[in-house]
Amino acid sequence: MPKTRFAKELKDKDVVNEVFLVKYSAVVQARNGKPYLNCVLSDRSGDVESRVWENAEAAATVLVKGTFVRVEGRVSVFQGKRQFILNAFTQVPASQIEMKEFVPEARCDVDALYLKVLEYARSLENPFSRELALKVLTDEDVSARLRQAPAAKSVHHAYRGGLIEHMVSIAGILDDLSKHYGPVLDRDLLMLGGFFHDIAKLWELEYALTTDYTDEGRLVGHLVMGVELVERVMNTIPEFPRHLRLLVKHLILAHHGELEYGSPKRPKCLEALVVHYVDDLDSKINAIQGFIEKDENPGDWTLLNKMYERYFYKGPKSVSKQ
């Protein structure tokens, strides 16, 4: 049966009987020492914080992360935020679920995006750069994962197909910047940075239903995993130039920009610096756009964005002539 109520639509005092995906679930203690279940229910429209106040341990055996549940309850507002207070809940078999109603997806056609990435890769002038890009991007496992993977767990492009959307967006900006600055920037290096800076998120994250880190993602991380990937492929290309090998690895390792943000090296060539700034820009635009779209505050301003420590204007941005 199709969903009729989505998480984003739920308002104060709504009585709800609907199916959701359990994104998070944990038994915690209230200030009075009594346990309750803190969980997050989700669908393609977003998330809703939820609570079970009674029999938390028993509820936790039903409201398990990654399962679908039909829940009954009432929405309330506490300290300016929605809370869905659950009274009843039963698991629903995945065979009865229309996945597109629960897993957020990129708004773009991921197959078309993949073809665009290959078009960019084939346009590289240096034959070693071109062969490296095409060997990585046309790998069967990489190709399949690129159509599914988010770019992050929660901050930006955190939906199915988000990684390739982010990759194509960055590649387009880098292509334009290479034309703007001409010989000052090496276009091939810029594009390789756009392709490879986040490529290992294909394995850093698991994203069948909910998104979380894999063991390799937690212990190694996508920067090192990305370097390992391109190193393996470069070793299959005869006479791959040493200087190009070093620069490609540097583009990946330096793309977070600063040591405190997880990069073991800060950008030390112009192309690495540009890749870092463009990656940061595209990530922030997507994250803030998503925050504004989900904001429930009435009027022209959002609620406080804790990550960016500011309110964002969402009112009209142009004035038509009278």
Report on the architecture of this protein:
This protein has 322 residues and is an alpha+beta fold. The protein folds into two domains: 7-101, OB fold (Dihydrolipoamide Acetyltransferase, E2P) (Beta Barrel); 110-289, no CATH class. 39% of the residues lie in helices and 18% in strands. The protein contains eleven helices and seven strands. The strands form two sheets. It has a five-stranded mixed barrel with strand order 1-2-3-5-4. A two-stranded antiparallel sheet has the order 6-7. β2 and β3 (46-52) form a beta hairpin. α2 (110-122) packs parallel to α5 and α9 (222-234) runs antiparallel to α10. The radius of gyration is 23 Å and the shape is elongated. The model has no long low-confidence stretch (mean pLDDT 92).
Task: Provide the gyration radius in Å.
Answer: 23 Å
**Class inferred from helices and paired strands:** alpha+beta
Q: Give average pLDDT, whole number.
A: 92
Oligomer: single chain
Q: What is the molecular shape?
A: elongated
Strand fraction: 15-25%
Low-confidence stretches: none
- The helix count comes to 11
Number of domains: 2
